[in-house]
């Protein structure tokens, strides 16, 4: 035993302890840049790999025809090169008897269950064929009703056919098994699985061979078998007549008392309309700011450069870039940081499959990428991937409006060269991005408010609908108390 332990390599000992530290070390070794593996001599470590226990070289599973599932049963693996050098080396496998026995046991159990279910289905089919006396109304019924639990479970009524029972109306009345079947249906279905359709009264009195009078208004025809009417038109006419008779009274009851929910909805609707007006006013103000910015840029283009005599003090301070971490001079810090940001921002993509549809100016880039089938959703001004800044010539003026006490505009603008002005670097780009970002916020707010208005209007429209008035009756307690008091007083006067 001591000789065997001594002969084990470091890889064999490490494999006995499947620790997370070992796994992380293996992944870090495999991810080393420039290192080649396998017979294909590539540095790809994303696929499944297996190591030789002799030379400790890593091989891709698909290159040596070994899957990840097969590798679970390999105890010791030796590559082809090591086996050629030492013919005594052979790949050893772990025993698989227990797993195979367990799998075979599971298969046997599944087969027995299938055979049992098949035999039960056959016996239920045979018993259903023999049931029935042939004389009662259930046996004479030829078609399924389509409403009971047994019918809704059938395949032709888009069911799962789990119950495998006959329609309730086609069950034999004299047979005892039929009554058991109907009771078993009620037991099998749980409370939360019951369907909404539950007939309140029996329709056995409608399933007679004798002619019956149709319930339709002014109809003299005989009713159909299992129905109160001779046709669907008669039923619709009766329902219409009932609506005309009941609905005016219900509308009068509704109008007698004020609806509190209606008042709340009207107040909420007024608030939403006010917020919509404010958002639209904010969008118009942002459009005005955009036009003012265009006017400032146009004014700066027509101006000439004025060189100032003031010399800037030499500042030898330095700082570190927040993006790349390099040490940079304070004078060129802004330009360097923006270049770093653009470089890293261009590596990511922000896309959507839907193009922006906004009236007026579009704030988004909306560049179509045919590979992914998406539209870029960065701000057009700030998109470093698809829109580049125009080149600045030597005669371009900075044009940034000057202010006093931070917020008070002086009416003048910077006349320094745009290339060398570090005080107002990229001021136009940042101002446009600020306006566009505020526009996006206001458009999102508008979407929210429109959805709220739609929901409120839907609630108001569905509250006093025909169906709601027919199903529910409004009871005003105050009015009814007055009526009852008047009636009682009248009775007392009559008695006296």
TrEMBL record:
Region (Disordered): 90-132, 183-203
SMART domains: PHD (SM00249)
Compartments reported by the entry: Nucleus
Domain CXXC-type, first and last residues per copy: 122-173
GO cellular component labels: Set1C/COMPASS complex
Biased composition (Basic and acidic residues): 96-108, 116-132
Example GO molecular function: DNA binding
Membrane-crossing segments per the record: none
Every PHD-type domain range: 35-85
UniProt cross-references to InterPro entries, sorted A to Z: CpG-bd_C (IPR022056), Spp1/CFP1 (IPR037869), Zinc_finger_PHD-type_CS (IPR019786), Znf_CXXC (IPR002857), Znf_PHD (IPR001965), Znf_PHD-finger (IPR019787)
Keywords: DNA-binding, Metal-binding, Nucleus, Phosphoprotein, Transcription, Transcription regulation, Zinc, Zinc-finger
Pfam families (alphabetical): CpG_bind_C (PF12269), PHD (PF00628), zf-CXXC (PF02008)
GO BP, one annotated term: positive regulation of DNA-templated transcription
Protein name as catalogued: CXXC-type zinc finger protein 1
């Amino acid at each position: 035993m001591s000789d065997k332990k001594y002969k084990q390599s470091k890889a064999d000992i490490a494999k006995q302890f499947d620790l997370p530290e070992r796994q992380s070390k293996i992944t870090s070794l495999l991810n080393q840049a420039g290192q080649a593996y396998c017979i294909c001599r590539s540095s790809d470590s994303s696929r499944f790999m297996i190591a030789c226990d002799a030379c400790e070289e890593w091989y891709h599973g698909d290159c040596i025809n070994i899957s990840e599932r097969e590798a679970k049963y390999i105890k010791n693996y030796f590559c082809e090169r090591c086996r050629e050098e030492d013919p005594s080396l052979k790949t050893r496998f772990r025993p698989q008897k227990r797993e195979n026995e367990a799998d075979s046991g599971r298969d046997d159990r599944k087969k027995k269950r299938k055979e049992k279910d098949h035999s039960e289905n056959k016996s239920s089919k045979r018993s259903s064929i023999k049931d029935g006396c042939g004389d009662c109304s259930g046996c004479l019924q030829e078609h399924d009703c389509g409403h009971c639990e047994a019918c809704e479970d059938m395949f032709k009524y888009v069911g799962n056919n789990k119950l495998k029972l006959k329609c309730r109306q086609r069950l034999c009345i004299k047979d005892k098994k039929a009554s058991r079947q109907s009771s078993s249906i009620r037991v099998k279905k749980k409370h939360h699985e019951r369907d909404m359709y539950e007939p309140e009264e029996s329709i056995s009195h409608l399933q007679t061979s004798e002619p019956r009078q149709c319930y339709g208004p002014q109809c003299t025809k005989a009713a159909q078998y299992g129905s109160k009417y001779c046709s669907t038109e008669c039923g619709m006419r009766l329902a219409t007549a009932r609506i005309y008779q009941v609905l005016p009274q219900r509308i009068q009851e509704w109008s007698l008392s004020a609806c509190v929910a209606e008042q709340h909805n009207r107040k909420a609707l007024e608030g939403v309309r006010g917020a919509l007006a404010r958002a639209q006013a904010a969008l118009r103000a942002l459009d005005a700011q955009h036009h003012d910015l265009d006017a400032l840029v146009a004014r700066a283009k027509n101006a000439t450069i004025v060189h100032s005599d003031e010399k800037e003090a030499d500042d030898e301070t330095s700082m570190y870039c927040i993006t790349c971490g390099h040490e940079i001079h304070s004078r060129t810090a802004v330009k360097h940081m923006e270049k770093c940001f653009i470089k890293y921002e261009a590596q990511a993509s922000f896309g959507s499959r839907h193009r922006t549809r906004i009236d007026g100016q579009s704030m988004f880039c909306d560049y179509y990428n045919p590979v992914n089938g998406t539209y870029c959703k960065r701000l057009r001004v700030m998109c470093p991937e698809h829109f580049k800044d125009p080149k600045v010539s030597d005669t371009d003026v900075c044009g940034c409006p000057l202010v006093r006490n931070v917020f008070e505009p002086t009416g003048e603008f910077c006349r320094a060269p745009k290339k060398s002005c570090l005080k107002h670097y990229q001021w136009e780009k940042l101002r446009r991005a600020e306006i566009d970002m505020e526009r996006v916020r206001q458009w999102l707010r508008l979407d929210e408010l429109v959805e709220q208005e739609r929901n409120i209007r839907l609630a108001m429209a569905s509250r006093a609908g025909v169906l709601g008035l027919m199903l529910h009756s409004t009871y005003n307690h105050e009015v009814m108390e007055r009526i009852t008091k008047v009636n009682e007083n009248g009775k007392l006067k009559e008695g006296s």
